[in-house]
């Protein structure tokens, strides 16, 4: 249970977005290609890819290599063999239809429009030849056709087959809800068993059904009879209902009944669920299945140390982290994404030991900590004190023999220092930096710093580390005379 919880916590929001986005793309591919050979080929390619990944995980080198080659060839075959279907899929749909919605209503509207237009042309004895492709490509079988990008409508179909239109004798191709080609010439059937009253349109329709699985609708110009041809067989459409049902069966559109809608919704829901499960499985295989181990150094950051304390020394400034996770995720790992923090809130003056655990280490989601070295950090912590010391000038060298230093007064005479208690406890007087006597020839003042150097102390607030020294120098004979009694001087 802990492992599952850790797995859920390890999922980043980027991972959830990645799964959702690719699941939707896969679902849209199913919606657009369902019922076609392209979808079946794609399913076969996916199965080959999954088998190839399984072979890689099992260490089957030759099998994985051969399967990878077969998968690449199969993908190329889909592009080459089914390029017409793939192109038509995007040509006959708007950009919104490609990315959104379930394209059933468009087919339903097209069916109604085609049925109405065909029987109106039958009543007017207007000859027509309409090709509706099936699952197989009709590329190469419709000759000299003119490309057309028009939405299926009653007015368009009637105008194309109007007897004064230059392309009225040719066939039109309807895919989805669009007329894609007009004025096409179809292959003629060479059968001898066809009725003698069948003209060129009927023989062209039969010839098309002999080489493809398309549905071809013929309207007889002389008799006004509507005939539907498919799979080398012709059927007379006795009414609009017959043609409507034939078109629905050919296009794979369920009848508009409650049960039909329910089955349609269940299929779509199942496809969406399978898409999510498949993409989630691939994501897990790529990110969690290919586990990689790495080791890296990370600096330790100490936080929440009390203001009156300081770290004197530590046993370690960095830790070695052993991490595991996806190879792709670990390769993209940045140093600023890893933080090792030790909280010193409970630290006391003296020797301290703090453990370094998973709670002290911040890692990106998906990266798992397996080991940390060292597991504890030892440190010496001291407190800050503020103590006042008298200032003593540190004279060095030798004054000229004719001179004598009679007095020296530092200003300030005392200074307060703030710093390491262990260092301050060893002091009773603070000296200035060394002042040489050699160059002094007369009384004067000078400024000199305190001799604290790199020691862990500083001047307390209100004090300065610069000392001003006033000194008096006299001639040695004059100083002796001034210090003798009057009688002695006489």
Please render the helix and strand layout as text.
Layout: H1 2-9, H2 13-33, H3 37-58, H4 61-81, H5 83-91, H6 95-99, H7 105-123, E1 128-132, E2 146-151, H8 154-160, E3 171-175, E4 178-184, H9 200-211, E5 215-219, E6 226-230, E7 233-236, H10 240-251, H11 258-287, E8 291-303, E9 309-314, E10 318-326, H12 327-331, E11 339-343, E12 350-355, E13 361-362, E14 368-373, E15 376-396, E16 403-411, E17 414-420, H13 421-424, E18 430-436, E19 444-449, E20 457-459, E21 466-475, H14 476-483, H15 486-489
Parallel strand pairs: 1-3, 8-11, 15-18
Antiparallel strand pairs: 1-5, 2-4, 3-4, 5-6, 6-7, 8-10, 9-15, 10-14, 11-13, 12-15, 15-17, 16-21, 17-20, 19-21
CATH architecture of the largest domain: 3-Layer(aba) Sandwich
Mean pLDDT: 81
Rg result: 48 Å
Oligomerization category of the chains in this entry: single chain
Structural class: alpha+beta
Q: What is the CATH fold-level name of the largest domain? A: YojJ-like (1
Total count of strands: 21
Order of the strands making up the biggest sheet: 2-4-3-1-5-6-7
Q: Tell me the strand percentage band.
A: 25-35%
Helix share, percent:
25-40%
CATH class call of the largest domain = Alpha Beta
- Span from first to last CA? 110 Å
Biggest beta sheet summary: 7 strands, mixed
Q: Residue ranges: pLDDT <50 for 5 or more in a row? A: 484-490
Shape: rod-shaped
Into how many domains do the coordinates divide? 4
Q: Could you give me the name of the CATH homologous superfamily of the largest domain?
A: DNA integrity scanning protein, DisA, N-terminal domain
* Number of helices in the DSSP assignment: 15
């Amino acid at each position: 249970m802990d492992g599952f919880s850790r797995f859920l916590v390890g999922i980043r929001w980027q991972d959830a977005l990645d799964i959702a986005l690719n699941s939707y793309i896969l679902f849209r591919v199913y919606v657009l290609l369902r019922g076609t050979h392209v979808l079946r080929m794609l399913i076969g390619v996916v199965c080959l890819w999954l088998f190839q990944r399984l072979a890689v995980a099992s260490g089957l080198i030759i099998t994985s290599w051969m399967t990878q080659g077969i998968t690449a060839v199969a993908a190329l075959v889909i592009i080459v063999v089914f390029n017409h279907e793939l192109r038509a899929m995007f040509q006959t749909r708007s950009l919104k239809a490609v990315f959104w919605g379930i394209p059933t209503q468009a087919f339903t509207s097209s069916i109604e429009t085609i049925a109405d237009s065909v029987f109106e042309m039958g009543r007017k004895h207007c000859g027509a030849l309409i090709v509706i492709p099936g699952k197989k490509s009709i590329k190469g079988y419709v000759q000299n056709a003119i490309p057309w990008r028009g939405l299926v409508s009653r007015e368009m179909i009637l105008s194309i087959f109007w007897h004064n239109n230059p392309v009225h004798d040719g066939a039109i191709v309807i895919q989805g809800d669009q007329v894609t080609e007009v004025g096409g010439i179809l292959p003629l059937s060479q059968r001898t068993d066809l009725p003698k009253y069948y003209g060129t349109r009927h023989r062209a329709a039969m010839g098309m059904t002999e080489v493809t699985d398309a549905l071809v609708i013929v309207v007889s110009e002389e008799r006004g009879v509507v005939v539907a041809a498919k799979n080398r067989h012709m059927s007379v459409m006795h009414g609009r209902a017959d043609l409507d049902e034939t078109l629905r069966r050919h296009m794979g559109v369920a009848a508009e009944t409650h049960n039909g809608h329910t089955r349609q919704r269940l299929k779509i829901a199942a496809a969406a669920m399978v898409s999510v499960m498949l993409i989630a499985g691939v994501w897990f295989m790529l990110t969690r299945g290919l586990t990689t181990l790495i080791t890296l150094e990370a600096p330790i950051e100490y936080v929440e140390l009390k203001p009156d304390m300081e770290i004197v020394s530590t046993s370690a400034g960095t830790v070695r982290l052993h991490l595991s996770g996806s190879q792709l995720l670990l390769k993209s790992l940045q140093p600023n994404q890893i933080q090792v923090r030790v909280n010193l809130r409970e630290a006391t003056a003296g020797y301290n030991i703090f453990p370094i655990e998973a709670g002290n280490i911040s890692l990106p989601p998906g990266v798992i900590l397996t080991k940390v070295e060292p597991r504890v950090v030892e440190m010496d912590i001291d407190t800050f004190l503020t103590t006042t010391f008298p200032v003593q000038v540190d004279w060095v060298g030798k004054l000229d023999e004719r001179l004598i230093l009679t007095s020296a007064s530092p200003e300030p005479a005392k200074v307060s220092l703030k710093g390491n208690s262990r260092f301050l406890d060893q002091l009773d007087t603070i000296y200035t930096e060394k002042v040489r006597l050699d160059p002094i020839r007369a009384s004067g003042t000078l400024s000199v710093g305190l001799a604290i150097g790199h020691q862990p102390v500083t001047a307390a607030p209100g004090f300065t580390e610069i000392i001003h020294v006033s000194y008096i120098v006299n001639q040695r004979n004059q100083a002796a005379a001034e210090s003798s009694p009057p009688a002695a001087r006489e």
